[in-house]
Amino acid sequence: MPATRLRWPLSAVLVTGPSMAPTLRHGDAVLVRRGGRATRPGDVVIAVFRTRPDLLVVKRAVRPVDGGWWLSGDNGLVTDDSRSYGVADVQGRVVARYWPRPGRVPPRPL
User: Fold this and answer.
1) Going from the N-terminus, what domains does the chain have, and what CATH number goes with each?
2) What are 16-57's pLDDT values in tens digits?
3) pTM over 0.85
């Protein structure tokens, strides 16, 4: 998805691509909270890779690195995460999926 900075404390974001399956699927709409508690390993986040500032991504936070985060997709077959693009800057945390299957998007221990 093209990078657009989150402007509101709670924003809607549409997921595109298969990298977060099965947790999130292409076409899912999620609510993202900017601010609030600090990012923790296992959180699903919205971020921008430092090497791809034009691309806003939905990934899972793995560990803090160099003032940013190492991110991973839940779908191990897709490598468009920190393995390819390096460190990312987190813009917000995914707190819920509201379409088409409403529900929380809980953190997963890594």
Assistant:
1) 10-101 (2.10.109.10)
2) 999 999 999 999 999 999 988 899 999 999 999 999 999 999
3) yes
Whether residue 8 contacts residue 34, with contact meaning beta carbons closer than 8 Å, is answered with yes
| HSE value, Cβ hemisphere, 13 Å, CA-based, for 91 | 23
Q: Pull the structure tokens for residue 47.
A: 């971020």
Calculate ∠ Cα 67-73-74, nearest 5°. 130
Report how far residue 79's alpha carbon sits from residue 18's, in angstroms, rounded to the nearest whole number: 10
Residue 57 has which token pair?
Answer: 């991504």
Q: Are 60 and 41 in contact (CB under 8 A)?
A: no
**Assigned token pair, 38:** 């600090």
Cα(58)–Cα(6) distance, rounded to whole angstroms?
Answer: 13
